């Protein structure tokens, strides 16, 4: 398996405070890789560095051979690294189909010159993505009326519309019922199994993390304190006792 993403000595400072403090991270293609750690460990800041929302203060970030550190989010997304964001409240009155079509339009950049064949191709492509996340029966439903779990699935669909090779998910099961969480886990596993997608996720629910991940990286105070195969990290008593506490 080749390495799709490699971060080396990644630092992001806010004034004199290092929210991400010399992080090394290697993510192999086709794997599910979780980044965990207590509140304030630096996970969200790390994700913002990966997607280009934040520029690294120093360090290197390579995605499939391209140095992406400091490149703007649209460039990073076009290279194939996309994050599912909580965006369904931006256009609450759009239907599921309209939302995914809009995301596809932004990828194709053909807004002005859309012939009818392009419209129908776009609809087919959108329906494919909607089907992938299990929302076919809700294609014509306004996104604001979807359940919380289905809204998160739509957010994954909007990211998939960018045809990413690497998908970032920040707490994908937050606020979900156990049933909704199981569906999200199955969706993420299907994306890697069927589409060969690589997934990096941050998650507080340890059952989800160790149920789904190939590799786990543990952060604390901006630094990586452990990483490796999920079973090894889970067996690391020090990590479990000190950093995961009663959640372990
Ligand atoms: N823009 C900013 N300016 C100053 N400090 C920041 C900024 N963004 C994050 N921080 C600080 O960096 C540290 C890491 O925050 P971050 O949100 O990355 O942690 P996290 O691991 O995602 O936490 P959580 O699990 O609570 O979401 C925190 O102490 C936070 O206050």
Automatic annotation (TrEMBL):
GO terms for molecular function: ATP binding; ATP hydrolysis activity. GO terms for cellular component: plasma membrane. Pfam families: ABC_tran, BCA_ABC_TP_C. Coiled coil: none annotated. SMART domains: AAA (SM00382). SUPFAM superfamilies: P-loop containing nucleoside triphosphate hydrolases. Residues 5-246 form the ABC transporter domain. Signal peptide: none annotated. Keywords: ATP-binding, Nucleotide-binding, Transport. It comes from the Bacteria. InterPro entries: AAA+_ATPase (IPR003593), ABC_AA/LPS_Transport (IPR051120), ABC_transporter-like_ATP-bd (IPR003439), ABC_transporter-like_CS (IPR017871), BCA_ABC_TP_C (IPR032823), P-loop_NTPase (IPR027417). This is Branched-chain amino acid transport system ATP-binding protein. It comes from Flexivirga oryzae.
């Amino acid at each position: 398996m080749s390495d799709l993403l490699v971060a080396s000595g990644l630092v992001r400072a806010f004034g004199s405070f290092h929210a991400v403090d010399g992080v090394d991270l290697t993510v192999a293609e086709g794997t599910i890789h979780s980044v965990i750690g207590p509140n304030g460990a630096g996970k969200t800041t790390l994700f913002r560095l990966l997607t280009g929302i934040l520029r690294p203060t120093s360090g290197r970030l390579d995605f499939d051979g391209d140095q992406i550190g400091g490149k703007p989010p649209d460039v990073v997304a076009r290279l194939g690294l996309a994050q599912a964001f909580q965006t369904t409240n931006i256009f609450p009155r759009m239907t599921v189909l309209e939302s995914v079509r809009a995301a596809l339009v932004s990828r194709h950049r053909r807004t002005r010159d859309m012939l009818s064949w392009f419209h129908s191709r776009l609809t087919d492509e959108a329906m494919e993505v909607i089907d992938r996340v299990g929302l076919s029966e809700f294609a014509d439903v306004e996104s604001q009326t979807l359940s919380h779990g289905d809204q998160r699935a739509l957010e994954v669909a909007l990211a998939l519309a960018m045809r990413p090779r690497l998908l970032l998910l920040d707490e994908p099961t937050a606020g979900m019922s156990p049933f909704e969480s199981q569906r999200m886990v199955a969706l993420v596993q299907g994306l890697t199994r069927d589409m060969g997608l690589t997934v990096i996720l941050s998650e507080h629910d340890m059952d989800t993390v160790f149920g789904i991940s190939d590799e786990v990286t543990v952060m604390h105070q901006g630094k990586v304190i452990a990483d490796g195969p999920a079973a090894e990290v889970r067996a690391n008593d020090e990590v479990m006792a000190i950093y995961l506490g009663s959640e372990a």
